[in-house]
């Protein structure tokens, strides 16, 4: 009887440990996805801000008959730096 109780306890413990491991992996995947999503959102905000500034600057330059640049000429080199 005592061995049987030990066996049942051991099986239950093993199942709980497996479940805990799966839950831990799921939480890590959620954390990773959340971090990745946040980084993409931040990069998108930065790119929109930079592009908006450069478009405004380009428009001002075109309106003042100075040099004429396209968004690709102005934004992408700065983004790549």
Mean pLDDT, nearest integer? 81
Quaternary organisation: single chain
| Uncertain parts | none
Report, as a whole number of angstroms, the end-to-end distance. Answer: 72 Å
The total domain count is 1
Helical coverage, percent range: over 70%
Number of strands: 0
Give the helices and strands as they follow along the chain.
HH
Number of helices: 2
Could you explain how this protein is built, in words?
- The chain has 81 residues and is an all-alpha fold.
- The protein has one domain (2-80).
- The chain is built from 2 helices and no strands.
- The longest helix has 62 residues, at 2-63.
- It is rod-shaped, with a radius of gyration of 28 Å.
- The mean pLDDT is 81.
Task: List the topology elements.
Elements: H1 2-63, H2 71-80
Helix pairs in contact: 1-2
Short description:
The protein is mostly helical. The chain has two helices and no strands.
Key phrases:
81 residues, 2 helices, single chain, mainly alpha
């Amino acid at each position: 009887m005592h061995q049987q109780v030990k066996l049942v306890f051991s099986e239950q413990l093993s199942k709980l440990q497996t479940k805990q491991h799966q839950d831990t992996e799921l939480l890590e995947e959620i954390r990773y996805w959340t971090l990745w999503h946040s980084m993409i959102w931040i990069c998108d905000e930065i790119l929109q801000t930079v592009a908006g500034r450069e478009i405004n600057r380009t428009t001002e330059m075109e309106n003042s008959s100075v040099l004429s640049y396209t968004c690709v000429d102005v934004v992408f080199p700065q983004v790549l730096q």
